[in-house]
Amino acid sequence: MPPEQPHGPDQPLDRIARIQAEWAHEWPDVDVTPQGVIGRLHRLGALLTEEVCLVYRRYGLSEGEFDVLAALRRAGDPFERAPGELAAHTMVTTGAMTKRIDRLERDGLVTRRRAAEDGRGRVVALTPAGRELIDDAFSEHMANERRLLDTLGPDEAAHLESLLTSWLARVEPPHSA
Q1: Were both Cys, which of 32, 72, 152, 171 would link to 157 (CB 3.0–4.6 Å)?
Q2: Structure pTM?
Q3: For residue 136, what is the domain's CATH number?
Q4: CA 84 to CA 68: how far, in whole Å?
């Protein structure tokens, strides 16, 4: 028996419901209801990523480069962090971070220098051009996210945020928060 659609029987089956129905028909003794949530979250994540990346591309940035510039901007004046700290604030490896920093430095958006307190360490800092770019891009990014979230009502958005926060706290390892 196909799973019930969350939006009612009058609506056509969405992509996930069709997949669930096929599995339910082919393998009726397997509970496919988790696909209703996981599949829709996966699909929604892909669609949202496409939408937010449109803004990044308008500024000549990849998602990862935007993330690095945003982490530097969030650091506050003088808008700098060590590469390892940047990796921790963006949840990427230091190897991937190096590639991102190389490109951003080549484009004049960040600089690298030796750390004053430890000559062996390095520090990455926003340039004035990098700060201007991330300020403009971030403003547009927030407006874009607002547009996407406004497809839900305020109560729906608050409820969804609460559910996702609770679920993420149960699934995500404590050290990655």
Answers
A1: 152
A2: 0.82
A3: 1.10.10.10
A4: 12
